[in-house]
Amino acid sequence: NNECEGCGLHAELITNTAATQSYINNSLIPTLDILERAQADAGVRNVVIEVINEPEWCMGEQGDPCTTEQCVAVADMQRFVARVAAAVHSHGSSMPVTLGSASLKWSGGQYQWWSA
In 10 A of CB 55, how many CB atoms? Predict the structure, then answer.
C-alpha cells in the first residue's frame, strides 16, 4: 500500500505555535538566506514570498467556507500569516510578502480577514 495517511495535511503547522516557529527557524530563514544570496550573486530580481495561497478554503468557524479535510480557525491562520510575514521582515529581507487570497470577497464585507 503506497498511501500515506495524513500526508499533505499541515493544519498543525498553522495551529501549533511551536510548529510555526520551527518552520520559521528551520525552513523559512534558511530559504531566505539562499534567495538573498541568489539575488546578490546572480542578480535575481522580483523575488516575492507568498505565505500561503488561498487559505480561505481551509478556514472555518461558524459557517465559514472550509472545504478541506482539515480546517483551522480564522485567528490561527491570521496568527500564522502574521508570524511568517514578521519573520521575513525582521530577517532584514527586502522581499515583499503576500498572501494569495482566493477571491476579493475575502477582503471586504463580512470577511475582513486580511485588512489589518
Answer: 22
